[in-house]
Amino acid sequence: MYRLTDQPIELNELLAFVGDPAAGAVSTFIGTTRDNNEGRSIISLDYEAYPGMAEQEIAKLGEEAAEKWEITRMAIVHRIGNVPIGEASVIIAVSAPHRDDAFKACRYAIDELKKRVPIWKKEIYRGGEIWIGSQTGERFTTPPTPSSG
Question: What distance in Å separates the CA atoms of residue 117 and residue 119, rounded to the nearest whole number?
């Protein structure tokens, strides 16, 4: 399960998807909207993506993780649109026979997603807003176009 959604992400749906009798471990990562960043009081986040390319790249992360570690199943769902304080922007769930592989695959997926997947984040804060281009902290005044990356 590798997808984008404009709806709240349901953790239980991802857990059901990765569940398997052969898996002795399930590792999850839930990235949520916090109420502050770099001294700014955040109201919400807005995410934009290049959907076809983003979902393809997310699926590639899953394939790479399966080559590196013994995992049973993986789910990565990233939200687009407005994400209020406290709600999940991204959830990753990984099942594996052993916890070490589940932990490593989950960590790999979020780290690589933030580096490679064409998703842009706008922080809406008291007094303004700012685009954060590559999710790694690069700042933009407007979101980059899909053809510029």
Answer: 6
Two structure tokens written together for 119: 């998703």
What CA–CA distance (Å, rounded) separates 109 from 75?
A: 10
Buried b (16+ CB within 10 A) or exposed e, 80-93: beebeeeebbbbbb
Residue 98, token pair as written in the block: 């052993």
CATH class name, domain 2-131: alpha beta
Q: How far apart are CA 15 and CA 26, in angstroms?
A: 8
Tokens of 1: 């399960």
pLDDT in tens, 93-105: 999 999 999 999 9
Task: For the full predicted model, state whether its pTM sits above 0.85.
Answer: yes
- Kindly list the domain boundaries of the chain, sorted by start residue: 2-131
